[in-house]
Structures are given as C-alpha cells and as structure tokens.
Amino acid sequence: MTVLEGATVRLRPADPSEYAVLFGWSNDPEIVAPYDRFATDTLESFVASLEGASDDPASLAPRFVVERRDIAGPIGFVGYYRAHPVLEYLDVWYVLGDRAARGKGYGTEAVGLLIDHLYAVTQLDRIGATCDVENVASFRLLEGLGLRREGTLRSALFHHGRWHDVFVYGVTRSEWLARRPRA
Length: 183
Known about the structure:
Blueprint lengths: L3 E2 L3 E4 L6 H8 L16 H10 L11 E5 L5 E9 L7 E6 L10 H16 L4 E7 L3 H9 L3 E12 L2 E11 H7 L4
C-alpha cells in the first residue's frame, strides 16, 4: 500500500468507508461538470473501477485520496492514466471535492507528489495533463508546478452541449527533476 507524504498533504489509497464520499464528488455537477464531461455513474460501477484501477493503466478511476496531514479524511483525489495507445506517457488529473480546501495549495502539492511518485516508479520521460481552457485554477496549478503549455486541442472535449478547447501540458523527467528540491 503506497502512501505519499508531503508537507501538508498525504496521498493514500481510498478506504472503503470513503467510497460514497468520493463517488459523490465524482458525480457532483458543480465539482466535475463545469470543466469536464459529466456522466452519472452508479456507486457499484465506481467502486469496481476504483478497486480495479491498479490493474488498468487506462483507468480514469482515482488512484489516491488526498487528505491533509493535520486532519484525517479526504479532501479530494488524484489519478493518472495512459493517455495514448501508442505514445509513452501518462496524464495526471485531480479533483478537490472539499470546497473549503481549495485555494490553499493542497492540490498543487498533491499533484507534485503524484508526479514525483510516477517518475520514481516508471521509466517514462514525460508526464502530461489536459484541462479545459476555461479552467483557470487548473491551468494555474499546472503552470505553477512547471508543466509547460504545449498546445491547444481545438474542440476536443464535448460537455454542456458544446465543444470545448483543451490545453495540453507536459513536463519531461529532466525538467521535473531540475525544478524539484532534492530530498
């Protein structure tokens, strides 16, 4: 069981007692839908995807719960997935479901821990992310971590009855390691 510790947050596997909270966040249109597709899932299928994520590199299920180190309990979750069937990189994603935890740096620290972990346990040379061009908080988080905006995929994501442009971000292993403090 992998647990990643940061200065203010911890990334850890979800506990079954938290599945309903995580499911609620992933199905809350005010949390997910403003900048992404929104599709209501069932708790049963959410739990199955959550529990099977470790065996499926393309899974979009959460990989880690984000919690503050000083207060137990989830404030969000993060994940990663193989974004392309041929190209060799992973995309990371993140949700802070606890609205009171937003804007305090927890998401930035959590995504940084996740990228550190992925570079430590894989031989990949690129980690990426995408976000809706209207999601200012998301692209500020990525840019604050040193991911480069590599381009825009025009009309790449359909939600809320229209097509949305998506920013593409990436960071190579050497760029990441040059920016991170040595442990």
